Amino acid sequence: MRITVLGKSPSWQDANGACSGYLIEEDDVCLLLDCGNGVFSKLRRYRDYVAVDAVVISHLHADHFLDLIPFAYALTYAPRQQPVPVARWPGTDAPARPKLYAPSGARDTFRRVVGAWGNEDLIEKAFDLCEYGVDDVLEVGDLRIRFHEVPHFLPTCAVDVTSLNGGGRFTYGADSAPTEELVRFADGTDLLMVEATLPRPEREGPRGHLTPAEAGDHGCRARVGRLVITHISDELDQLWARSQAEGAFGGPVSIAQEGAVYQV
Ligand SMILES: [Zn+2]
Ligand SMILES: [Zn+2]
After folding, report:
1. I need a labelling partner for 172 at 20 to 30 A (CA). Which of 69, 83, 210, 218 fits?
2. Which ligand is closest to the CA of 195, given by its number?
3. pLDDT band at residue 46 using 50, 70 and 90 as cut-offs
4. Radius of gyration of the chain (CA)
5. Which ligand is nearest to the CA of 61?
6. Rounded to the nearest whole angstrom, what is the distance from the C-alpha of residue 229 to the centroid of ligand 2?
7. Report field, pTM of the whole predicted structure over 0.85
8. Ligand 2 centroid vs 152 CA: distance in angstroms?
């Protein structure tokens, strides 16, 4: 299994960056995990968007789903998706319509967002939308996908992708407050991609994110093979963040960078 970082910014984009998006490929199977703002353009560098088999959304914050909108426009209006021949495109009777797995309530949220300019069904027509439950287990080709709820400001799932071909296991913590749930869910995974958003814990209100040291501590307790921290702004000191995470993890930690490829 190969994981390519398409975007790793938190809710505002790095210079030239994109918010959350990870391309997961094994053989011919291709999965896009989260599709935050900026991700569609990055995706196009690595993979033809009509060849994406499925998109999985961890939660319904803008920085994790907003680029479903340009993706849906491409699937709807791109010349090669049309039934009639135009210019160099021969026309097709079978336009691409990738699966879209999103949390409960996603259909409503998408309708409200694109409905703001009168396109209520844009996303559900472009994609084969399926709202998943926390206990669902999905299979996309030889990739098995499991979910586990983690504490955040709205319902959010960590996502585990396991190859059924012996191709390794990848776990994504999504956005999360410190939680034993993620430690248990990620236990023994080959690679944990965990958020490290905060320069210090939230000063007030409920917690919703991790510091780099907390991210490292989660990776250590989950006994993961490799730890990558993500959802971290280019405005935070990367050397500081990595040393904080490594101190708690007890080993080397990478910071997700756009275009980085991990093999598990
Ligand atoms: Zn986020
Ligand atoms: Zn979030």
Report:
1. 69
2. 1
3. very high
4. 18
5. 2
6. 15
7. yes
8. 7
Task: For residue 217, give the DSSP letter.
Answer: H
Q: From CA 82, how far away is CA 46, in angstroms rounded?
A: 23
Q: How far, in Å, is the centroid of ligand 1 from the Cα of 114?
A: 20
First CA to last CA across the chain, in angstroms?
Answer: 6
SS3 78: coil
Cα of 180 from ligand 2 centre, angstroms: 18
Distance CA 136, CA 12 (A): 31
Residues 122-159 pLDDT 10s:
999 999 999 999 999 999 999 999 999 999 999 999 99
Ligand lying closest to the C-alpha of residue 63: 1
Which tokens sit at 145?
């996908």
Q: For residue 89, how far is its CA from the centre of ligand 2 (angstroms)?
A: 39
Amino acid at 57: I
Neighbours of ion ligand 2 (CB under 5 A): 61, 175
Structure tokens at 116: 């703001």
Q: How many angstroms is it from 20 CA to the middle of ligand 2?
A: 10
User: How is residue 82 written in tokens?
Assistant: 């049309």
Q: How many CB atoms lie within 10 A of CB 14?
A: 18
Cβ neighbors of 71 (< 8 A, separation 6 or more) are 35, 40, 43, 49, 55, 126
Residues 6+ apart with CB under 8 A from 198: 209, 210, 211
